[in-house]
Structure formats: C-alpha cells, structure tokens
# Entry
Amino acid sequence: MDVDHSVQNESVSIVDDTITITEPKKENEQTMSTTKALVILVVIFSLFLLILGYLYYSFPQMTEEEKKYIKIPRNTTDMQNLGRVLEDYKDTYYTQVFMSIFFCYIFLQTFAIPGSISLSILCGFLYPFLLALAIICFCSAMGACFCYLLSMTIGRRLAYRYFPDRIKSYANLVKKHNDNMFCYMMFLRITPFLPNWFINVCAPLVDVPLIPFWLGTFFGVAVPSVLVVQAGQTLHQVASESTWSWSSVLLLATFAALSLLPVLFKAKLRDKFD
# Structure
C-alpha cells in the first residue's frame, strides 16, 4: 500500500530538467480541472464580447451601407471601406472610434484570433504615424500579457496536455537566454521563428518574467509595425485620391515585400542569434 501511495504522488517530468509538472492523483480530478479551465476561459471570452458588443451598439447611428463595413478587415478593400467609415465619424466621435479599435485589438491579441495586422494597417490609415505606432505597441503588449496571465492561471494544464513537446523546445531556448530575456523577447517578436500566440501561451510555463515579456513585446513589435503603419498611411493616400497613383501603389507593394524579409532570412537570423 505504501508503494502504491508513493507512486500516485510522484511528480512526472514533462520537459526534462527545465520544467516539471505534477500529475493529479486521480483522473477524475484532471478532467474536472480541465473542464473548469475551459469554463473560465469561455466566461472571460464572453465578457470581452459583451464589451465589444456594447461599443458597437453605443456607436453613433449609421446607415445600412456603413454598417456592413463594420467588421474585422480581411483584405485591402475591407480596410479601405472600414477606414472611410471610421474616418467620417472620428472627428465627432473620437473616443468611441478610438476605444473600439483599442479593445478590438486587445481582444484579438488576448485570444490569438487572426486579424490584428489588419487593425494595425487601419491605425496607420486613421491616425498620425507616432500615435498609430504607439497604439499598436501598447495594445500588442497588453493583449500578449492578458494571454500570458490566462495561460499562467487556467491554461497550464491545457498547454501541457496538447503540445508538451513544443513547450520543451521553447523551454530549452529560453534557458539559454535567461541573462538577456528582454533582448530575446524582442528578437522573437521581430522574427517569425515562433508564432506570437505560442510565445504568449508558453512564456509563463517556462518562467519568462512578466516585465521583460511586456517590454520585449512592446519594443519588439515596433520594428515590423513601422512598415505596417506606413502601409496604412499609403493606403489612406490611395483611398483619398480620385484615381490610383502608381507611385502609391508601388510604395504599398514595397512595404509588403519588406515585411517578408524576416521570413526569407529566417534560418540565417536564427543561427546568428543562437
């Protein structure tokens, strides 16, 4: 009986000597904990939706033609149409427009929902360069930190359950850069080595401190966002002209091409940093 009892309480190492996790004594406890984590996650997600719904329905009365453009943009046409609608209301209802973009951006970042890059371009479309860049950096950092906190409090069990091998790989990378975590977080945000959602979810699981995580995200996203904001301002210039300017179209294409450079030189950058 003593032997069986010690086996039940034994800690099982999931990621070698970098991270350890203790399995529950009973399978039923694990099921209940996972279910509880999912329920809490759904509740928090629903609260975000309620806030966004309130912002939407408290927005000034719009025409039916304008309402169909109020959605997360998926392409250049969507961004132009949404930008034109919001620009018409921005001067009179500045706070409502700003808070709608602000919460929507944080919502997408918190739950790793695609579409934040379109909102980044939209910020460049609507606001001056420095303000747009500040909005993107702050919202990216806050959304990433909310995702970090969710993972730390309720997502730990789910993360270990569904991708333990990737956590192990990430933990080994983090362990090599404990002395310069801020710079390493900046590097991960600038380059496409790991998906942003994976960094946000796994950072607390491999003991990345919150402050360098926030700062590294804030300053790291600034580098690629410079091109995105400029693309938004170019798109605004194109949308404002009665006819397309070939110089503006060429400039927009150039920014799109430059944003792909980290992907093209992915292997070389990884070797150099490691």
